[in-house]
Design goal:
The chain is mostly helical and 140 residues long. The protein contains eight helices and two strands. The radius of gyration is 17 Å and the shape is globular.
Amino acid sequence: MRKNIPNVDFKKLVHDLLSENSQSNRAGLKEFINLLTYKFLMPLEYYLFFRMNSFVPVFVRQCMLKKVADNNDILKTLSVPVLFIRGEHDVFLSVSAFENYLRIIPNVRGLVFKGVGHSPQWEAASLFNETIKDFLKKES
């Protein structure tokens, strides 16, 4: 089943994810997890996503967000084949950012998985695994 992804208040989401207040932090984490996938997660899947992401301490999230990295110069020098996969409904990696990476990375193959969000490896696991397998066979 597909979600109706609302307009996201990323400013509030980031504030909550970085909050040391446990209730705000938990609310931000729930919203973040809700945005990772386009399809609804089953309760056990949701719990796994929540547990995996809750292990990241607030101070680590704060440090990650403060870090600004423009790796375009490095990406332009890659000499290995690159497979770049984006979910059609990804709210974290914009279409323009994806297209920019496809322009600057040499020898890149870009794919968009239909009907999934930021977690194609989870939402379309079989297709994702087959795609990776095919890519590795072709490039090895």
